[in-house]
Input
Amino acid sequence: MSKNCSVSPSRFFCTKCGKEGLTLQRKKGQQRGPRHLKKLYCIYCGEEVNHAEIREIGGYDVEDFKQEYQLGRFVNGNRIEIKDLMDCSNVDCPFNVNGKCWNSNYSNDCGHRIMKEVDENE
Ligand SMILES: [Zn+2]
Output
């Protein structure tokens, strides 16, 4: 593979359904940083959804996206930053990554979360 070409392909994965969408050619110099999200039309979802961009070189690959998607880090198409994730002390939980709960979309009800709002009339 030549590194001298003026464009490089970017693959895009839908943050809602997790499927791969269009591959776009980005001109060098127009490339965004790693973990960039781009709003594209998803043929599976039938609407415009943020897609995670994966470049050939970029420090963010398909496995990274799949981990983020499967653990539930995307909420309404936005990636929750690591610093904004909830702390988790359950080291056996598969959603616990380095002490942070990656299940931001609450697809997994682990029962360990401490909710910020408590119903006082319980
Ligand atoms: Zn989709």
Notes: The radius of gyration is 17 Å.
